[in-house]
Amino acid sequence: MSALRDALRDLPDAVFADLLESDDGYVLVVDLPGATAETTEVLVEDGRIDIEGRRDKAVPEGFEYVREDRPLFLDAELPLPSDADGAGADAEIDRGVLEISLPKRERDVSKSIPVDGADDEGDA
């Protein structure tokens, strides 16, 4: 998970993100002001999370930008925690706050495997 933490630190200063962890999974919270479900795409594949989001640029009639510091796009590629189950991921955006839930894979449970002997038929 330290790779994900490091990647979050490398996001642009204008992007705010939180990472939460429980025994069952992770929640990645990313602020995407102005982004909607229609303008946001999240893809989990090959051990990474790809986030693409954009905000609509609406300028009220009669106004023009004097200064513009908010980015229009976010394109981030983040490593998936090694114990996360990307296939069970879920994402939701509400008022520009994206939450990606990543369940943890079930830990390997020890299991006794029976060993069968070779068939003794045909031996004299």
TrEMBL record:
It comes from the Archaea. InterPro entries: A-crystallin/Hsp20_dom (IPR002068), HSP20-like_chaperone (IPR008978). Belongs to the small heat shock protein (HSP20) family. CDD domains: ACD_sHsps-like (cd06464). This is Heat shock protein Hsp20. Keywords: Stress response. Gene3D superfamilies: 2.60.40.790. Residues 6-118 form the SHSP domain.
